[in-house]
Amino acid sequence: MASTKLLLTDLATTINHVPAHYIRPILDRPNLTEVHTSDGSSIPLIDLHGLGNPSQRCHIINQIGLACQTDGFFQIKNHGIPNSMIDRMLSLGRDFFQLPESERLKNYSDDPTKTTRLSTSFNVKTEKVSNWRDFLRLHCYPIQDYVQEWPTNPPSFRKDVAEYCTSVRELVLRLLELISESLGLERDYIDKTLSRHGQHMAFNYYPPCPQPELTYGLPGHTDPNLITILLQDDVPGLQVLRNGNWVAVNPTPYTFIVNIGDQMQVMSNDRYKSVLHRAVVNCDKERMSIPTFYCPSPDAVIGPAKDLVDEDHPAVYRDFTYGEFYEKFWNKQLATECCLDVFKTSAV
């Protein structure tokens, strides 16, 4: 890039054509005319209401297990996070990216080891083609270790984001219990495997793009973490690969999209799938998405759950630390979509 500190948010308002370093090779473009459209029905919608009722809980566990097996994605409603908090987070993200450039750049870094940073694309130090995205990434668990690094502008940022992070973590921990049970494991199996746990989040900002057919917000990839909870605004952009076709997932107000990450695929010994997804952009509207990435600690040892390994189902992956996995993921720069193959055993 001409300047690592030239944020896309500022560039996009001044140009009529996509700069060369954002243009994908012809065979690596979105082919937007071939994307299947969806009203959301292509992604299972699971109602979490009634978890306290044993029979309803069993039904929800079965729904989640089926979605993790067949889709790798599902939506949730009645999740316990107030609509007012969702509205506040989306407004906060827009307000941050509308701040003057000089104010936003106080948070800028192209060093991926920084636990709070504003940056652009994916990895500006190494990539050859940039993505049409700016992002603010935050580590947020334990909150007291990171909150003092977070932006102070907008003024309510730290307070509002801390409340949201806490609420999402409570939601994730409930989901991990349900997913553990759906695999036939002890309710706390996944929780115990994560060591000290890790939680990150991002505010992804995708400005309008004059030629969206030439570039990506993010190209097709699987998430390297355990599970992702996605909050998005009302502008479509998320697409999921289903049966060899890209399907556009139109947003459903006040729901979250949950997607299974690579670590969950490993723990489940390939019963549950981490599915390719991507973000595309459009020429008319900005888009905001707020993913929360829940993950093991770097020292956590990840491998197939022993109860899911037998003669008929040999271990697909070797054991590894999450720190080792994430380093390989980052170095691949999304270039090969998924790096799980590196960790497969010779038995498969």
UniProtKB/TrEMBL annotation:
Domain of life: Eukaryota
Reported cofactor(s): L-ascorbate
Catalytic activity: salicylate + NADH + O2 + H(+) = 2,3-dihydroxybenzoate + NAD(+) + H2O
Membrane spanning stretches: none
Residue span(s) of domain Fe2OG dioxygenase: 197-296
Keywords (A to Z) from UniProt: Dioxygenase, Iron, Metal-binding, Oxidoreductase, Vitamin C
GO BP annotations listed: defense response to oomycetes
Classification via InterPro entries: DIOX_N, IPNS-like_FE2OG_OXY, IPNS-like_sf, Oxoglu/Fe-dep_dioxygenase_dom, Plant_2OG-oxidoreductases
Record GO terms (molecular function): dioxygenase activity; L-ascorbic acid binding; metal ion binding
Xref: PROSITE patterns: FE2OG_OXY
PANTHER family, sorted: OXOGLUTARATE/IRON-DEPENDENT DIOXYGENASE (PTHR47991)
UniProt family annotation: Belongs to the iron/ascorbate-dependent oxidoreductase family.
Protein name in the entry: Fe2OG dioxygenase domain-containing protein
